[in-house]
Amino acid sequence: MTPRAQVEAFLREQPGLFAAVPDDDGSGLQLFEAATGKSLAVRWSDLADAVVRRTSLRPAPYLVLVFHDGRQVALADVGFAFAPSVASTGPLPDLPQTFCFRDFRHLSQGIESLLEEEGREREALSAVLLAIALLDGAKVAGFEVGREERALEALLRKLEERGIRV
């Protein structure tokens, strides 16, 4: 089955997770994550492979899109999933192999909660670094993350006001 056929079949078999808008010329499509509205442009000629996978950690199958340039993005029950990037942070302990945009929301809320408590700045900083790795990974995968970067910058300012320099 071609990568295009795999993508189309997966979207039919997993309705409601993603919306797909085909390009006018048929050269690809724009995928929208239902939960967040995040989108990813996919050109059929850019796809090297599309592979359905299963894991004991998730109840539903997921589809890994493998691009010719080496990028990989999974279409999963949690939405788009992608690898983090440590280009800006350096190695991080406890860094997951994959992130989704839902993880950013959880990290942001966790940082907010930590900043409400005295003496939790180092934990907040650790969560900020994870969020940076998540957003950098999302950018590498081809996502627009300006809104999330602005939210993270506001959290960083709060952290710096508490005397922590990043």
Detailed description of the structure:
By secondary structure, the chain is an alpha+beta fold. The chain folds into two domains: 3-81, no CATH class; 99-161. The protein is built from four helices and eight strands. The protein has helices spanning 3-13, 101-115, 121-141, 146-161, and strands spanning 18-22, 28-33, 39-43, 47-53, 62-67, 72-76, 79-82, 99-100. Strands 4-5-6-7-8 form a five-stranded antiparallel sheet. Strands 1-2-3 form a three-stranded antiparallel sheet, with no helix packed on it. The mean pLDDT is 95.
Descriptors:
38% helix, 4 helices, 2 domains, 166 residues, alpha+beta
Low-confidence stretches: none
Structural class: alpha+beta
Which term fits the overall shape? elongated
Major sheet description:
5 strands, antiparallel
Number of helices: 4
Q: Helix and strand layout, with pairings?
A:
Layout: H1 3-13, E1 18-22, E2 28-33, E3 39-43, E4 47-53, E5 62-67, E6 72-76, E7 79-82, E8 99-100, H2 101-115, H3 121-141, H4 146-161
Helix pairs in contact: 2-3, 2-4, 3-4
Concise overview:
With 166 residues, the chain is an alpha+beta fold. The protein is 38% helix and 24% strand. α2 runs antiparallel to α3 (121-141) and α3 runs antiparallel to α4.
